[in-house]
Amino acid sequence: MSLQLKICSDGRGSWSVHGLSPLPVKHLPSLSASIDYARKECAAAPATIELFIDGLYAVVHQERGWPRRLLASETAGRGSPSGQ
To answer: Between 5 and which of 17, 19, 35, 78 could a Cys-Cys bridge form, CB atoms 3.0 to 4.6 Å apart?
Structure first.
């Protein structure tokens, strides 16, 4: 069985994770922190993750262990011509 999670931007710089407990976990500081929190709390169990980011909607399916990387590192591509 796969978990159903939602990670949402609140539009004021904080994030929430829905689906791990009856009430959402709010006021997480970043998308990265939200993903890390969700992965840790569900022990990287299989999950379908809905991302709501400033009007963007994306769905990601993660297998056990969450092998897909959802975010690039913050320094990836900086200073290189192809990183623009």
So the answer is: 19
